[in-house]
């Protein structure tokens, strides 16, 4: 069965021991990535968070946020491959470590959002309601108004073999009834040292992405 996917966003959050970082170090990070990452603005928010945002706010939006206890890397309205954003992530983390000497994160999460089309499905709402949920129109009459969007949230806890948690949302898209919106948030509770094993983050990005492309899509296509 044919499926097509389009990535909307990749968001990474790294939790660290609370620490005070000197302003000049933030500025050095900004100076090193501003050109290569097309960063156009540097802002210090009221709570002390430093935010660096891309020049282009219509597509390929890059946003980096450094707080006292975490670092958030956000790539939205993506137009390039997942590998491209992994490259940006690797570069940012290397610069961050070089300038701050902070290399250990207690845990991290990876969120991937995608749009999915599956051949043969013309109305994702009817597909979820009738094929996946096995509901009939009479089951929906109690709402007393038309249903324009629907979805489900699925939570997969870690196991003794793999302590990764996956938190999944499957929804229909408001302005395109043929398309599914799928979000998978992978939570990786093990500490990581980016000065030694930054590739582990890339492996976790891959596993989060694979869970969408294999597990979630295979779950949906069994009902076609």
Describe the structure.
- With 224 residues, the protein is α+β, with helices and mostly antiparallel strands.
- Helix content is 29%, strand content 36%.
- It contains five helices and eleven strands.
- The protein has helices at 23-33, 82-100, 124-132, 194-197, 199-221, and strands spanning 3-15, 39-44, 50-54, 61-66, 70-76, 104-105, 107-118, 151-156, 165-173, 176-188, 192-193.
- Strands 2-3-4-5-1-7-10-9-8 form a nine-stranded antiparallel β-sheet. A two-stranded antiparallel ribbon has the order 6-11.
- Strand 2 (39-44) and strand 3 (50-54) form a beta hairpin.
- Helix 1 runs antiparallel to helix 2.
- The protein is elongated.
Mean of pLDDT: 96
The radius of gyration is 20 Å
Strand order of the largest sheet: 2-3-4-5-1-7-10-9-8
Helix content: 25-40%
Number of strands: 11
Report, as a whole number of angstroms, the end-to-end distance.
Answer: 9 Å
Global outline: elongated
Q: Which ranges are low-confidence, i.e. pLDDT below 50, for 5 or more consecutive residues?
A: none
Alpha plus pi helix count? 5
Helix/sheet category: alpha+beta
Report strand %.
35-45%
The description of the largest β-sheet is:
9 strands, antiparallel
Order of helices and strands: EHEEEEHEEHEEEEHH
Question: What features would you highlight for this structure?
Answer:
single chain, alpha+beta, 36% strand, 9-stranded antiparallel sheet, 224 residues, 5 helices
How would you summarize what this structure contains?
With 224 residues, the protein is an alpha+beta fold. The chain has helices at residues 23-33, 82-100, 124-132, 194-197, 199-221; strands at 3-15, 39-44, 50-54, 61-66, 70-76, 104-105, 107-118, 151-156, 165-173, 176-188, 192-193.
């Amino acid at each position: 069965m044919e499926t097509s996917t389009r990535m909307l966003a990749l968001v990474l959050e790294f939790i660290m021991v609370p620490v005070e970082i000197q302003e000049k170090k933030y500025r050095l990070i900004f100076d090193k990535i501003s050109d290569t990452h097309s960063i156009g603005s540097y802002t210090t928010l009221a709570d002390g968070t430093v935010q660096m945002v891309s020049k282009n706010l219509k597509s390929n939006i890059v946003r980096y946020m450094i707080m006292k206890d975490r670092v958030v890397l956000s790539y939205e309205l993506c137009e390039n491959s997942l590998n491209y954003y992994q490259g940006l992530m690797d570069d940012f983390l290397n610069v961050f470590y070089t300038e701050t000497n902070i290399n250990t994160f207690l845990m991290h999460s990876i969120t991937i959002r995608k749009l999915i089309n599956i051949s043969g499905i013309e109305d994702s709402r009817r597909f979820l309601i009738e094929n996946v949920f096995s509901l009939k129109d009479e089951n929906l009459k109690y709402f007393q108004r038309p249903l324009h969007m629907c979805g489900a949230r699925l939570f997969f806890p870690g196991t003794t073999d793999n302590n990764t948690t996956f938190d999944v949302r499957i929804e229909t898209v408001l302005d395109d009834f043929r398309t599914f919106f799928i979000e998978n948030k992978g939570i990786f509770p093990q500490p990581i040292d980016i000065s030694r094993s930054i590739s582990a983050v890339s492996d976790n990005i891959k596993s989060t992405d694979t869970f969408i492309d294999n597990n979630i899509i295979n779950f949906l296509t069994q009902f076609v």
